[in-house]
Amino acid sequence: MDKPSTLPTPSGFSRRMSVLDRIFSELGRAVQVLDGSVHAGRPNPAGKPPLSADESAALSQAEQKHAAGLMRVNHVGEICAQALYRGQALFCRDASIRQVLHRAAAEEVDHLVWCRDRLHELQSRPSLLNPLWYAGSFSLGVLASRAGVGKNLGFMAETEKQVEQHLDRHLSDLPAADTRSRDIVTQMRDDEISHRNTAETHGAHKLPKPVQLAMKAMSKVMTTTAYRL
Ligand SMILES: [Fe+2]
Ligand SMILES: [Fe+2]
Q1: Are the CB atoms for 157 and 204 separated by under 8 Å?
Q2: Ligand 1 center to 73 CA (angstroms)
Q3: Helices (H), strands (E): how many in the chain?
Q4: Which ligand does the CA of 193 lie closest to?
C-alpha cells in the first residue's frame, strides 16, 4: 500500500504531498537539472580539476574533440536517466520502489555533474537538445510507472544493461591519454551495474524483445545526435 509522501511546514507539522505538489516539485527539479545547478554528492572520480591546460594538452585537437563528443553523449545519457527515474517514481504506488528509483536518480546526478565538468575541461558544452531529451525521457518514465512495479523495474534493469554496454564501448573508444574521462566513465559503469543488480533484486521483470529493441533504437538516435549537437 502506498504511504503518503509528506512535506514539512514551518510550524513543524507535515501535510500530505498531493500529486499536484509532486508535479510542481518535479518541474523545479527539471529546471535545476537542465540549468546545471545540481551538485554531486560524491567527489569526482577523476580527482581535482587540473590547475592548468597542461593535462588537456596531452590530447591532440582531434582527440579532444572526439572525447568531448563522447562525454556529451554520456551527459545526455545522464539527463535521460535522471528524467526516466524521476518519471518512473512519480506515479509508482510502492514507496520502497520509489525510494530505489530516487536513490538511483541521486547517483545519476553525480554522473551528470562529473560529465558536465569534464565537458568544460575539454572546452566543450552539453547538448543543446537537453530539454527535449529530458521531456521525452520523463514521459517514458511516467508510462513505465503506470505499467506496474515488475515492468517498471524491468525498464530500469534493461536501461542499465544497455548503458553498461554503451559505457564499455566508450571505454575502448576514448583516447588512451584521456585518463580523466576514463576514470569518470569507469565509475559510472560500476554504478550502472549496481543499479541493474538492485532492480533485479527487487523483482524486475524481463522486458519483451521488441521493447528491448525499441529502447536500443531510441538510444542509437540519442547517441548519434548528441555526439554533434
Ligand atoms: Fe548514470
Ligand atoms: Fe544508472
Answers
A1: yes
A2: 12
A3: 8, 2
A4: 2
Buried (b) or exposed (e) across 44-65, using 16+ Cβ within 10 A?
A: bbbeeeeeeeebbeebeeebbe
Spatial distance between the Cα atoms of 178 and 124, rounded to a whole number of angstroms: 15
pLDDT: is 56 or 198 the higher one? 198
| Pair 160, 121: CB distance under 8 Å | no
pLDDT tens for residues 157-168? 999 999 999 999
Torsion angle, alpha carbons of 85, 211, 222, 101, to 10 = 10
The domains of the chain are located at 18-46+62-228
Residue 81 Cα to ligand 1 midpoint, Å, equals 6
Q: How far apart are CA 127 and CA 225, in angstroms?
A: 9
Fold of 18-46+62-228: Ferritin (1.20.1260)
Cα 33 from chain centre? 10
pLDDT surpassing 60 at residue 3 = no
Q: In this predicted structure, what is the pLDDT of residue 2?
A: 42
At 140, the amino acid letter reads L
Q: Looking at the CA of 109, name the nearest ligand.
A: 1
Q: Cβ atoms within 10 A of the Cβ of 128, count?
A: 10
Q: How far is the CA of 158 from the centre of ligand 2 (A)?
A: 10
